[in-house]
Amino acid sequence: MISYLPIFAGAIIAYLLGSFSSSVWVGRAFYSVDVRNEGSHNAGATNTIRVLGIKAGIIVLLLDALKGWGAVALAPLFAAGIYNDNQLVHYQIVLGVLAVSGHVFPVFTGFRGGKGVATLVGVVIALFPKAFWVVLVWFFTVFAISGFVSLASITSAILFPFITVFLFHEKSVALIILSIMIAVFIPITHHKNIRRLIRGEEKKLKLRK
């Protein structure tokens, strides 16, 4: 009889991995600051850069992306001998979503997390490695022109399923659906930013030493 205990264990670990709020821990440990009480009050890389500086922000960005990538990368370990290749893709998506959910609603820091963009980037790197580089170029192009991380994130997310389907001809229905979900999820989590952009009140991110 096949035991599905590893499958459930993987799901729990993916959520707990996502729940590690790197911005909160880095801020508290090295700067005695909780970034959720400063700047935009968001536990993410952008607010970390705004509050603590570029060095701390890059560390947080990498750690948050690593959470998403790691959750997907661990899937074969938990699903070995249980799922076939097609089922494994579905399981990888589930673990990636749980990691992002953990970042947005982290159990370790009172369920007050970030918007999940960096962690979602890690998931995208693991599942859509080719499309990621195209989206990355778009992101930095929009950011360089506008200075708005939010605008770069939103437009990158909306563009993502088109790149996945029309440029790289993705055949997996599950991955196509995921790309569409990303295009919907990111604008929803940035609804406040969208309102500020419309009103001309969104703050640009200035990179400085």
Assembly type: single chain
Rough outline = globular
Strand content: under 5%
Main sheet record: none
The pLDDT mean sits at 94
Q: Please give the count of helices.
A: 10
Q: Distance between termini?
A: 59 Å
Helix content: over 70%
Order of helices and strands: HHHHHHHHHH
Number of strands: 0
Instruction: Indicate the structural class.
Output: mainly alpha
Q: Name the poorly predicted regions.
A: none
Rounded to the nearest angstrom, the radius of gyration is: 17 Å
Task: Provide the number of structural domains.
Answer: 2
Give a quick set of tags describing it.
mainly alpha, 2 domains, 209 residues, globular
Short description:
With 209 residues, the chain is mainly α. It is 73% helix and 0% strand. Helix 1 packs antiparallel against helix 4 (54-79) and helix 4 crosses helix 6 (117-127).
Describe the structure.
The structure is a single chain. The chain is mostly helical. The chain has two domains: 1-115, no CATH class; 128-209, no CATH class. It is 73% helix and 0% strand. It contains ten helices and no strands. Helix 2 packs across helix 4, helix 5 (85-104) runs antiparallel to helix 6 and helix 7 (129-146) runs antiparallel to helix 8 (149-167). It starts with a helix and ends in a 10-residue tail after the last helix. The mean pLDDT is 94.
